[in-house]
Amino acid sequence: xxxxxxxxxxxxxRNQHRMIKFIAQSIRLCSxxxxxxxxxxxxxxxxxxxxxxxxxxxxxYTHAPEPVKHDKDLGHLFKASQLTVRLATPQQLQxxxxxxxxxxxxxxxxxxxxxxxxxxxxxxxxxxxxxxLENLVMHPAAKVLHYAVELFEGMKxxxxxxxxxxxxxxxxxxARMNLxxxxxxxxxxxxxxxxxxxSRLLTIDSEWVPHTDTASLYIRPTLIGIDPTLGxxxxxxxxxxxxxSPVGSYFKTGSSGAVSLLADxxxxxxxxxxxxxxxxxxxxxxxxxxxxxxxxxxxQQVLWLYGEDHQLTEVGTMNIFMFYxxxxxxxxxxxxxLSGLILPGITRDxxxxxxxxxxxxxxxxxxxxMPMVCELLNQGRLLELFGAGxxxxxxxxxxxNYLGQDLYVPTMEQEKPVHELIRxxxxxxxxxxxxHPWSMVID
Amino acid sequence: xxxxxxxxxxxxxRNQHRMIKFIAQSIRLCSxxxxxxxxxxxxxxxxxxxxxxxxxxxxxYTHAPEPVKHDKDLGHLFKASQLTVRLATPQQLQxxxxxxxxxxxxxxxxxxxxxxxxxxxxxxxxxxxxxxLENLVMHPAAKVLHYAVELFEGMKxxxxxxxxxxxxxxxxxxARMNLxxxxxxxxxxxxxxxxxxxSRLLTIDSEWVPHTDTASLYIRPTLIGIDPTLGxxxxxxxxxxxxxSPVGSYFKTGSSGAVSLLADxxxxxxxxxxxxxxxxxxxxxxxxxxxxxxxxxxxQQVLWLYGEDHQLTEVGTMNIFMFYxxxxxxxxxxxxxLSGLILPGITRDxxxxxxxxxxxxxxxxxxxxMPMVCELLNQGRLLELFGAGxxxxxxxxxxxNYLGQDLYVPTMEQEKPVHELIRxxxxxxxxxxxxHPWSMVID
Lengths: 443, 443
Description:
Chains A, B: Belongs to the class-IV pyridoxal-phosphate-dependent aminotransferase family. Chain A is built from nine helices and 20 strands. Chain A has helices at residues 9-29, 33-46, 143-147, 170-183, 191-204, 285-296, 346-358, 370-378, 418-430; strands at 84-85, 112-119, 124-125, 129-132, 136-138, 150-152, 155-159, 165-168, 216-225, 237-247, 259-263, 301-306, 311-315, 318-325, 331-335, 362-365, 382-389, 393-402, 405-408, 439-442. Chain A folds into two domains: 58-92 and 100-248, Aminotransferase class 4, branched-chain amino acid transferase, N-terminal domain (D-amino Acid Aminotransferase, Chain A, domain 1, 2-Layer Sandwich); 257-433, D-amino Acid Aminotransferase, subunit A, domain 2 (D-amino Acid Aminotransferase, Chain A, domain 2, Alpha-Beta Barrel). Helix content of chain A is 26%, strand content 25%. Chains A and B meet through strand 5, helix 3, strand 9, strand 10 and helix 6 of A and strand 5, helix 3, helix 4, strand 9 and strand 10 of B.
C-alpha cells in the first residue's frame, strides 16, 4: 500500500482507516467500485504532506461564537431532555444506497427526521421529537411559501477511522443559524440543545453514515415560518427541523477535477444593507437562473462579483480563496473579509485558522478584484484559486469566463497545491485520522 | 344622501352602489357598523371630483404585457377547459366574516382553492383542479423551504355597484408572474388559462367577495418549487395555486389616516443585478426585521432607500409617488423609473396612465432623492407623498424619520389632494362605478 519505508503515526491512521473502509466496501459493494476506490487510495498515497496538523485550536485566530441573545418575548426554550422518539416501522425503512458514487447531493434521505415546533400562542418552543421521515403538512398561506421566511444550515456527519461518527464545529453552525433567525424575525434557540437532539437522530440513523471517506451524511437543519397569514411580518409559528442525506461530492467538475466559472458583473449576489452574510433561503433563489446561464455557456459555477472594481465575493455557494505571490514576493493566501457581503463560512474560518497556525505563508483577509486576478495571471503570480465550503471542502478553479474572455488559472498545475493540503488536513480532522477539538464525536 | 342638485351619471352609479351595499350590510351585519358605513359614505360624498374618468385606455401610455416566451423543454401547458372541481362538503364550509372592519389582511380564507401541479417527468403541467381549501403536503427537502424557490402575485376581486364581481388588469399580473417564474427557474404558463381557472374559483366562492367598497377579496396566486432535492438548482416539480382572502385595509395608519416611515440608509431592499423587479418571495424575508425595527421606533412602514444619494425606491411593499412643485413652478407627479430596483406595480402603471390622460399636471418617471425631499419640504414645494399598491390602492405619508430627524410631509393638508382623486378614480373603476377596459367582469 505504501512505497515509503518510514511510516509516521498519521499514515498509520490513514491506512487503518482505509482498511476499515475496504472491508466495509467489500461487504457492501461487491462490485468493481471497491477496485476503483483502491486505485484512488493508492493514487492519494503518493502525495506527501508538508504541513503538520496541530491537534489544538489557537485561540488567537479562532473567534468562538458568542452566546445567542434571545428576544424578551420568545417564550420557553426547548430542551434535549424532553426529546421523544417515534421510530419508523420496518415497512417504512428505506434501502440504503450501496454505491457511494451514485449518491449525488441531497437526493436520498434517511429514515428519520427531527422536528421542533414553535408557537408563540402556546408559550414558545414545543418538545423536540424524532419521527419517521415524513411529509410536512402546512397551510397554503404559510409565510415560508410566500415571503421566504426560511433559513438553513449545512453540516456533515463523517464516519471516522475508528468507526465513530463525528460532526465538525457544530457550535459555529448553531451560532450562524441563530443570527439568521434573528434577521428573519424567527425564534432563536439554544444551539447546544439542538445539537444534542441531532446527535440522537444521528445515532438512530447511524447506519446511513457512509463507511468511506469519499462520502458523508449531510445534515440539513432548517427553520421555517409557518404562520398561515399573508401579512409581511414576523411569524408567530415556526418549525425547526433536520433531515439527513448521504452525499457524495456536491459539484460536477470537469475531467481535470476543477471547476470553470462564469464571472458576469451583470449579476450581484449580495449588497450592503442586505442579508448576504446570513444563510437565508432568500439568498439562493435569485442565483438559480444565473447558474443555469453559466451551465448554458458550458461553465460549472458562478463567480459572484460586486462593485465597480468587480470584487470577487463568492463562488457558487462557497467562499473563495486565492493563493498567489504578493507584491513583496511572498506566497500569500487571501480571501475576502466578512464585510456583510459574504457568508461567514465555517470551512473558511477553519482554513484561516489552520493556515495561520501553520505559519508557512502569509494569510490575509482582503478584497480580491478581477483586474487584480488578470494582472496576477499575466505576471504568472496567481498560483491557485479555489472555493471552500461544507459541501465540497475545497473546490479548485481552473478557468474563469470574464467579460467574454477565458482566463486559465493554473490551480491544478502546482506541484504541491495548497488547496490539496488544506483538503487533506480538514478531512483528516473530520474523518478522525487525527484528534482535534473541532471534531465532536457522536456517542 | 347628496347636497348637490345636479347629479351626474357617475353619482347615480355611486349611490346605486351604496344602496346595494346598505341593503347587503343591513342583512349581514345587523350591527352599528352599517351606521358607521353610512356616516363614512356621507363624508365621502362631500368631496368633489375635479378629474374625469376616461372610460378608455390611452395606448400611448399603456404598455400591454408581451406574450410569455416558454422554455423549449417546458412540456405541455395546462388549459382551463381541463379544470376539475371538487367542492367542499357542507361540513367543510367556513362561516363568512360578518364584520368587514375586523378582517385585517390575509388572516381568513375562503372555502376553496385552485391547484395546478407541474412535473417535468410527467410531461409538464398537469390538469388544473379546484379543491376545498386544504393543507399542502410536501417533502421536507422541497426546494421552496430551503432556497426560496417561490413567487406570488397580489390581485383583488371587487363587488361592483351592479353586484357583479370584477378583477383589475389580470393580464398584467399574469405577465409579471411569468417573468418571475423565468427568473426563478420555475415553469411558465399561459396567463389567460390561469385567469379562466381563477374566474371559476371566484364564481364558486363568490359569496366571499364582500358586499362593500371598503373591503374586497384578495387573490393570492403562488408558484413554488417542490422538488425534494437539496441541490441549488431549477425545480422540476412545481405547484401553482391560488387562495382567496377577504380583506379590509392592509396598513395600520395613524389617527390621521396617513402612515409614518422609517428611512434608514443602512438597509437596502434591492440592487442592480438582483431581483428587486420580480415579485419573488426572496425580496420579502429580508424586510421583516427592518419593518420590526420601524415599529419599535413608532413608525408604520419602511421607506427603502438606495445608493449614496439616498434614492427613494419603495415604501413598505408599495411603489412611491410624490406630488410637488417642480423647478419650473409646475405641479408634477413623480415616481421612480423601472430601473430594475423597484417592482413594476400595476397600480403604479395605472396611476401613470390615468394621470397622463388627465393632462392636468406634469407626470414624470425619475429618481427622487432624500436631499431633494428635504429641500422641497424646506421650500414648501412638496405637496403630497404616497405609496401605491394593490393592497392599499394609495397610502398617504405624513412623516419620514430620516437620519434621526422627523420630516413632516403635508400630504393630509391639501385641499384637493391628488392621492384622493387617484384613489377615487381607481376604486370607481374597480368597483364598477364606471365601465372601463381595465375591469374584467367575472361571469
